[in-house]
Amino acid sequence: MSEIETRYWGIRLGQGGKFVEHARKGKYVAIGWNDLGNLEWLANKERSWGEARDQLIKRYKDIYHKATEIQVGQGSGQVMKFIRGMKEGDIVIVPDMARGKAFIGRVTGPYEYKADWADGCPYLDRRNVEWIKEVKRDAIPIKLKTSLGSLLTIFSLDRRKQEIMSLIEEGKKAEPLVMVTGDELAKVIISRLFNLKPEKFEHFVTHLLTLVGFEATATQYVSDKGVDVIGTLNPEGLANITLKGSGEADQRAY
Question: For the segment 153-180, what is each residue's pLDDT rounded down to a tens digit?
Answer without folding.
Answer: 999 999 999 999 999 988 665 445 566 6
